[in-house]
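QA checklist item 7 of 12: single-chain prediction sanity check.
[x] sequence parsed
[x] length recorded as 505
[x] structure emitted
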Amino acid sequence: MDNFIYITDDFLFFCIGLLLLYLFILVVASHFKRTNYPKAQKQYHCAILVPAGSLLPSMYQEAYEFITYKDLLEAIHSLDKERYKLVILLSDKSSSLSSHFLEKIYNAYDAGIQAIQLHTVVNEHKGIRKHFHVLSEEINNSLFRSGNTQIGFSSNLFGTNMAFDLEWLQKNQKTARTNLERKLFKQNIYIEYLPDVIVYCDSAPVYPYRRRIRKTLSYLLPSLLEGNWNFCNRIAQQLIPSPIKLCTFVSIWTLLITGYSWTSSLKWWILLLGSAITYSLAIPDYLVEDKKKAKTFNMEKKTLKQRIKQNPALKKAVHRFIMHPVKTRPNWWIRLFYFVYLKRGKGSVIYRSVRKDLPPFNQFSLGCYSVVEDFCCLNNAVGDLFIGDYTRIGLGNTLIGPVRIGNHVNLAQNITVTGLNHNYQDAEKLIDEQGVSTQPVTIEDDVWIGANSVILPGVILGKHSVVAAGSVVSRSIPAYSICAGCPAKVIKSYDFATKEWKKVK
């Protein structure tokens, strides 16, 4: 009997410990700063569908185009695909919208996102039952929506307050009971979550999709065989108990084990503490009852950060923990969490031989369908490094931040782009002891840089400009220009009147 209890105890501890580690990674990822989508290059038309009787059309009649409906399915299929590219489905509980509502949705859609889950915030959460319901849903937002998208997985759908590509929605919404979330996951279409795009509701909307565990599990094996990790992740998350159920089970089991054998209960008390910390981190600030404590906590965080910067010894210790003393890359225990803090868009590729000198104290993001080819070096140790969508970084390139690269940019081979300079002005001091200075490099959209070129700090390469092979660019190049030489000079510019490239004397 004792052996059975101990075996069961170890098995449960292993399973729940693994689950809490997974949840902890998600909640930590949700706290990292999100990379905003670039501003949309096109103007889109969007239809916002709301149930009949909603007050939103009268509140925002001049700002947005609302369409009221009695039959949602009929309303969706009646929309003109030639006129509308996007459709937003709002709940009947919706009472107001956040600022720049459509602008942020357009930015995501312009980057190739077909499905978006908006952030639902319930205004009324007085009473224990309502408060726990809102609390549980916000925890799900942090874990399974924000956390998922931060590590590269699709967000879970709430079932309302969503935005879709109209053509896809009309093709897939066959009946009123169609599970759109399952359709998206089966087709491996990425679902984005925009926490800053908020739909305020008077009460909690009803989740429309039926949870059928057996049917959900039937998709697990096909998804594994197809390599559809988004769907596998979603299936696993549907099997996870709610925060209240999980914490209740851990608490009861901890008490039982403590009564049976207190020497075996220590690990469960640690697990119980870990679950409390994990779910506490997932709760947003506005739901914390004692706001003064929340403000104090934020002030303490800021103070700690300032103390680290102002204290050379402490700063050195923190830096030593993160970075290798000789190499410019982070230590191996930091590199284990690359997937948490390095933002990568859908379809992006970084080849294995790429050197990633990317510590967490500065930002890095790689846009959708962008590629970093073999033997490149990416370094954000002294400044942020942003690479846009549909951009290709060729073989053997070196990028040292602060650098911002736009969309549809092509870098050939053996190119150096650096925003870093070493200080040398004091002749009585070693250059290594004088620190560094930075000037951001900006490469705008649709730029082509030839092989063996060097882009120096402070340079701005304008839109649709070309840098000839072997050039050393020390000054900014205007848009629609071709430069060459060392130092590079503009040799051609595009004349929009004649639609020709003309030599510059």
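[x] summary fact logged: Confidence is low (pLDDT under 50) at residues 289-301.
[ ] second reviewer sign-off
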